[in-house]
């Protein structure tokens, strides 16, 4: 048996130490992919989950069962880590629970990480924090955020970002993806939304010309892992890298698409007719120039992502 927290088969010599990265929500769609991407980069991963036996079973991954908003658990799990990645947000739950986990809970582990001398804190936020009203054009990291009337999820994610901006003593990066495509039982866009479209006529309505901003989960995980392991160096300029000791948002969106692209693929795969509505819609794009300047290049294009979605919904022939 190796030392606690070190998995057999992984080297961690003083001359070339493996980074130790804590990942919350390690059994989720994004969290599991981040764990895999970190392992590919030679990191040791402390995979935080709430239920035993649910962390990814990968070399270099150690399961840690607990609640990251608990100060004692948070202080223990970050000891000796080089980075923390938080992926948890109870989307669709009551507002009070979203605030408890996001706005109140996520800063707990961020403060614990800062107190323990952890170098980086990477939080999976969302592009839903941006105001994307019909008359708003393209948005980037400097664009206006949503108002209080935008809905529970965007507002609590906005407020979680603001709370993390107040945590001192650690480099924080707020990664903001739009719709996340990729297979998985918990995938909103590959599994849950298509099921609603299949089963509920109301879910078949959409504005076809509205922008569908998206990113593939594997490309998102690659960016997060590169930030967490330090492959993307810090900088004094957010255009060149995360600001050392600061809080830097970065968008992670792939190529252009519309609701017609996504909704058309889903309805065709589940065997129902789409309902194309008419009305004002946001038709801008989520600018990812900052992520590109940091060296991130999405590898999955729209054709590949939609083909994967189609195959998953139709199942084996």
From TrEMBL:
<dbReference type="Pfam" id="PF13460">
    <property type="entry name" value="NAD_binding_10"/>
</dbReference>
<feature type="domain" description="NAD(P)-binding">
    <location>
        <begin position="25"/>
        <end position="182"/>
    </location>
</feature>
<dbReference type="InterPro" id="IPR050177">
    <property type="entry name" value="Lipid_A_modif_metabolic_enz"/>
</dbReference>
<dbReference type="InterPro" id="IPR016040">
    <property type="entry name" value="NAD(P)-bd_dom"/>
</dbReference>
<protein>
    <submittedName>
        <fullName>Nucleoside-diphosphate-sugar epimerase</fullName>
    </submittedName>
</protein>
<dbReference type="InterPro" id="IPR036291">
    <property type="entry name" value="NAD(P)-bd_dom_sf"/>
</dbReference>
